[in-house]
Specification:
Layout: E1 2-7, E2 10-13, E3 18-26, E4 33-39, E5 46-52, E6 58-60, E7 68-73, E8 78-83, E9 92-98, E10 112-113, E11 117-122
Parallel strand pairs: 2-11
Antiparallel strand pairs: 1-3, 3-8, 4-5, 4-9, 5-6, 7-8, 9-10, 9-11
């Protein structure tokens, strides 16, 4: 129903920046919340940020507030995550996901997921 394809991951030094992209398609994603999540080796998948396609509310995990910015381009059906001041602890596979019609930070409530893109931050 919803297809998501991430891109933009890579290797950066501490303090550097990356912008992740997520291309969305399908018949019913416009009313869903869209989230970014990440998962490091040996750790649970954790919430990063969330927004909707047509809304100005955004929310961030405490660990990324002031450093990451979620945004979208509705004309291109693209979701973005701008990541600045990156730290080694940001190293993880990053996923975009389409969730419920209400705002949620719980990955269990998100139905559709992209394939993930690796972000590695050198110390």
């Amino acid at each position: 129903q919803v297809h998501l394809v991430e891109s933009g991951g890579g290797l950066v030094q501490t303090g550097g920046s990356l912008r992740l992209s997520c291309a969305a398609s399908g018949r019913s994603f416009s009313t869903r919340c869209m989230g970014w999540f990440r998962q490091a080796p040996g750790k649970e998948r954790e919430f990063v940020s969330v927004m909707k396609w047509v809304a100005d509310y955004t929310f961030y995990a405490d660990s990324v507030k002031g450093r990451f910015t979620i945004s979208r381009d509705n004309a291109q059906n693209m979701l973005y995550l701008q990541m600045n001041s990156l730290k080694p602890d940001d190293t993880a596979v990053y996923y975009c996901a389409a969730g419920p019609t209400y705002y949620s930070t719980n990955p269990a409530t998100y139905e559709y997921w992209g394939q993930g893109t690796q972000v590695t931050v050198s110390s």
